[in-house]
Amino acid sequence: MNSGFYNESPACHCEESSDNEGKNKQHYRKPIESKRGRPRGSKVSGTKKEVIDLRSLLTRCAQAMADNNTATASEFLKQIRQYSSPYGNATERLAHCFANALEAHVAGTGSALYTALTSRRIPAAESLKAYQTYVAACPFKRMSNIFANKSIGRLTREATRIHINDFGILYGFQWPCLIQGISLRLGGSPLLRITGIDFPLPGFRPADGVEQTGRHLMNYCKRFNVPFECNAIAKKWDTIREKNSGGM
């Protein structure tokens, strides 16, 4: 249970691990390496790997496109394709994605590429696995969620109703911690209303994704006895008006 939800500052469980890490560093001493020359007759094996600045190539390619210099842009794309890969390191994978976009821009097929990408439904389990990997590798998303949830809890400590408008709710990964936290309030939890807003999905059920997220959050609220209402909106964000969110 999130017993420290209404505390002034979020609990940090990293201090102990940091202390242990510091102790381990104190006990560790780097061994002294003896500097000796290469034995006679030996040769340096292997070849030097060519270092390519993919960021510079991508920038120059984009600049050539902006100048309508298709020939130069195509030449840069050939170089980018040679040194990028969907299975390489992070830079090579990112360059591969940008190269696809730049190539579509040159060929005038950007709209078709976007339609093909958006029509592919990514399974929720796959998205959750990617999100967990991201949160484990980068603490910023986790910390922003912690401080946002605690700020909402602090500012609504006496409120009987809480209404949240979540633009880009996707699967609503942020809100289970808030639901669990407000369920601990003395005297009972307030009514929680979440207006989940996301882009419409292609096909005949554009709001299917955001409505499914609402059902998952509803089931989670039932586990913790939190009164819950959900308003699912699948529209372009610039078309959303205050009346769409349904004021309380």
UniProtKB/TrEMBL annotation:
Extent of Basic and acidic residues compositional bias: 13-36
Keyword vocabulary terms for this entry: Transcription, Transcription regulation
Range of residues in the leader sequence: none
Stretch list, region Leucine repeat I (LRI): 52-112
Region Disordered: start-end pairs: 1-47
Keyword Transcription set for record: yes
Region VHIID, annotated ranges: 131-196
Region (Leucine repeat II (LRII)): 212-244
Similarity-based family: Belongs to the GRAS family.
Protein known as: Scarecrow-like protein 14
Organism, as annotated: Abeliophyllum distichum
